[in-house]
User: What shape does this take?
Amino acid sequence: MKSKLKIVGISLLVILISLIAFVGIYLKKSNVWENQIPEFKFGMELDGVRELRYIVDTTEEEKNVYIDAEGNILGEVKEKDEEKSDNGQEISLDAPAEETKTEEVAVPETEKVNYATEIRKIKKNEDADVNIENFEKTKSMIQTRIEENKNFEYNIRQDNMTGELVIEVPNRDEDVNYVRSAVETFGKFEVIDEQTGIILLNNSHVKKYSAMVNNTSGYQSYLVIEFTKEGAEKLKEISKEYIETVNEAGESTKKYVSVLIDGNAISTTYFGEEMPGGVLQIPIGQASTDFNTHSQVFEQLSHIVSALQTGKLPIVYALNTDDYIQSAITEDLINICKIAFAVVIALISIYFIIRYKAKGLLGAILAIGYIGAYVIIIKYTNVVITINSIIAFLGMIVINYIFVGSYISKLNNKENPVESFNKTMKKLYLNIIPIVIIAIIFTFVGNVIINTIGMMLFWGILLQALYNAIFTRTIYVSK
Assistant: This one.
């Protein structure tokens, strides 16, 4: 009786695994039933391609800037606040800047100098920077940024004459956004005087960028900036100057700095204490107790860190087109393949039942359960589904069927179930040693097409050993 209950229990568990894999687990959220099991991650050849076409940015803008004696730009002049006149119209307190003028600006006491301000046309790409060498260097830096995400599938090509970049990625928003972040983040880091716009620190003062999380009370992401020796000294002086002061009347005055990435402020603050360590931690986003919300923020921060760490791009690109190119493998063809696969599995199951009777029925159920468990692992480990990885997937299923059939044959010959299992497993793995070696080597290859074959084989082999040791061996030993 106990053995029969064990057989029934294991069989029901295996059937449940299969249902979860092929049907899913649905929970109602906001009046919508959502499958909690992840979808397959298809490669470009199956899911279609998003083609991002970038051109060299030729835009320019007139800006009021600070310049030194050599004409180098030291920052953009901060616009003064606007006030309302009595009739409600906005009036500017700034007089039109028609000529270069010299004025004293509020910079740290140790660096206070007379600077000039000037209206200049600032180009996104200076004419001298637009050349083949910078095109190739920018492409190489973008590839480095993209490949920070290991085993990321993409194609990139460049027109060396115009600098145009074409990047192909899978048709998934998260992949498209990742590539756009890699290309469209110029990588310019600045700390400026919030009152004036003078640049106090920039990329040249930074040694390293990194991302960290503080989960003491909720999850808070931080951009961590480690400065060079020179940058650390400047940061120390700035932290003494940009503080809150209180006069004799008890009135508080604060001097602020802003931290900018590509001209966009990510933090505006003043210092509460001296910063002698040469490290600045900037909170990104709000602290959250929800891990999923935090994960999204941290992922975006990681992309920014990756871009900053490679340095400023020599060329600024602008997105020209974002097109979807449909795969030659249509949805109808995929559905036909699914039906054909199901028919083949059904035929193999019928064959097992006819040849091995009750043992064959259990073997058929166990083999389908293996496929279900395999599917779940593939989904949760984000193995990219390509034509090559599908072949590896089918190969592992065939190997498992051979194992189950061989084991049942030994049982029909009245051999000891435990010894038969051990012998069959040993023989199987001696025969597939080359496949095991291929799986290990391919898993660590950077190329997605090769890596996904290795991953598919690795998980298939590991699961085959564990699944059959837990379920197949137990269910037949119970008989």
